[in-house]
Amino acid sequence: MFETDYETMPRGELAVLQLERLQSTLNRAYLNVAHYRRAFDASSILPEDIRSLTDIRKLPFTTRQEIEKCYPYDMFAVPLREVVRIHTSSGQARRPIVTGYTANDLKAWARLMARFLVGAGITKDDVIQIAFRYGLMTGGFGFHAAAELIGASVIPADIGNTVEQVIIMRDYLTSVIACTPGYALILLAKLGELGINPQSLRLRRIILGAEKLSPSVREKIEKGLGIEVFNSYGSSVVLGLGIAGECSAHVGLHVYEDFFILEIVDPQTRAVLEPGAKGELVITTLMREAFPLIRYRTGDITMLKEGVCPCGRTHMRLADFYGRTDDTIKIKGASVSPERIREILKTIGVDTRTQLHIYREGPYERADVLLEVVETLFFDEMRAQKAFVEKLEKAIHTGTSVRMGVRIVPSSAFKGDAVVVDERD
Ligand SMILES: [Zn+2]
Description:
It contains 11 helices and 21 strands. By secondary structure, it is of the alpha/beta class.
């Protein structure tokens, strides 16, 4: 383990630590973030009213929409001069959520990711190829800092050019690859195309994150590459990847509870549910300096598992993920909401029925936006229609950062009434 004292902390001691850190977070948030002051005042609650961990239920929730209104910096709890890194969340909203990190936040992030890496059996002898995007989104940065922290050799491969990735993997003796489940399938297919037997490589682990990992995709990766798979969970609004990670027992993802309080709530009634019940994941940060979040509703549907893990860690685990409370969907590692796509189309004067169709073509994820053909979307000339479709595709790509196709089709081509049809397995 990377931090055995914290990772195996007895539950009683952990609760004391959580309460102490919660109270300090509430005080800082109330003092420095106008949004929290207003929200607490509206609920007639003060930070000092929270005297036990269950008192957290008295606090108001924080929603994505509320954070969006604080664009760009109004959710920051420290002055900008103390912020050393700025990231944004992916394109599911009109305006991105801008998050900040102090130097301590970055150190903490690296430590949490290092717990995941060490839990996955990664050591300083490993060569880690990070095939995540390095950019405004948190992408590869958490993996990168953690891998350096444990002394592994880091290859910041970024994403794209799969042939080059495979050559790097072979020639640079990569032993661990970090990527999304979708990209793992693409790498696997490329190895096949190039006639490279995965067993001939040094690869021994694959660490995944940023997308749902279905059992069938997991099996494909595990069997195809012949290596152990470790999954992780994160949120670009909360921190990035590094909220929870799988250990070698493979019985759920350990939440780093000394850094986060996780609750599961009924998405409709907002009542807090007990461990073992499915519901929306709500996260409170305990150590974030620049961007503390109090009862943030993630929209992810999951379940908490109690009990000491066979690995010895005492922290609760996240069971599988069962979808979202909204229509937001991950495509090629980015979150996209159908509502956002409709907004983009409206700005170009298109206001017809749409359906988002996501599927796999071989290992590749494809997304098509189906538009119902109406009089205003009827063109005499094929060329005019093609140009118009290209214009829409470009606008959607710019607005969501995900490339999607646009197809103008009769209503009979729609699959039922769903807003999103996801045919990936
Ligand atoms: Zn474990």
